[in-house]
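Input.
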Amino acid sequence: MKRYYEGKVSIFKQSGSPYWTAYYRDSTGHQRKKTLKTKNLKVAKQRARQLNKLLEAGDNGRLEALKRNRSVTVGEVIEQFMGEQDDGPKGPGADWAPPTKASTKPLLDKMNEQWGEHSIAQIRHTDILTFLGTHTSTTQQSSWNRYRATIRGLFKFAVEAEYIPSNPAEKLKYEKVPKRTPKALTDDEYLAVFKRLPDYCQVMFQILVDTGLRRSQLFRLEWRDVISDRRELVIRSSKDSEDRVLPIPPRTAELLDSMRGGSTFKIVRGKIEQEISWPNDSIPTNNIIPFMSVTKSLQKAANAANLGEGRTVTLHMLRHTWATRHRRAGTGLDRLMELGGWDSYEMVLRYADVPPDLPERTDALEQFPLGDSK
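Output.
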């Protein structure tokens, strides 16, 4: 009987069985055997290495949990990941903004259709690659990256929940998305669009251009996040990073304070006039501005403002506009990176347009004395 060793774990094929078996001693010294459920030696060695890592970490509890949870299905993990279970902790997807949930739902539905009844412990890296190649179709690199990020996040969640020992999607590669010219509105363009927007859109416009918030952050803002006396907003992270505090201009603080009693706006849909209401601050966890789509209102205002053929306006453009205004006002890249919540200068430069007066600033170098050239 030929054996192979991976640290404290030996693997072999028992007589009469085509499958590899792992043999090891746990931290109490008891001998254990575990069927690796594979006929492939390379795969068996890989699973033995994972088992050895757990043994070296002394994590017998995790080994037992993995054994108990081997029947958990992909469908169950997707449901928990999206936070849709009736009890228990929320999954990462529960805090996603509605547009993110909507764009991710088709992918998760296809995964559920393909693997929903399968044990998640059975899914391998090659299965994921095959799924991506046959069940997803998009020409946009950003969409491919979103698919990969979602799948990696789902299996990472399964690892943390002790359903699987390692993440089979960990090595999924991302496509490099080509840089695009930042889409910042000029002051004239901003004002031309702003005055043609409905009242409720003007509120969103002003807050976003004054704070640089992402659209999802705007719709997640709660009344407890507004610290009026210090003119600050608490930006709560939907990820593992810490919350941050953002200083805001006086006019933004005044606008938010004026909305504390609740806000009501009249809107026209087709030929029907309706009212929408935003919550007051009587409950601290009330959203200041509930999610709503304003795409049509923005495009209608952009067309009326004559911005040019094919020129569109989105809420995210206001983050570009905010960053560009800061840079042209002389805000340093380090401070702008901190204010915008970016992780690198490269990201700042993607959002903040180059100041138009760089030639003049370069010419100013000639005013510096060169000293005695003799």
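Residues 141-160 form the longest helix (20 residues).
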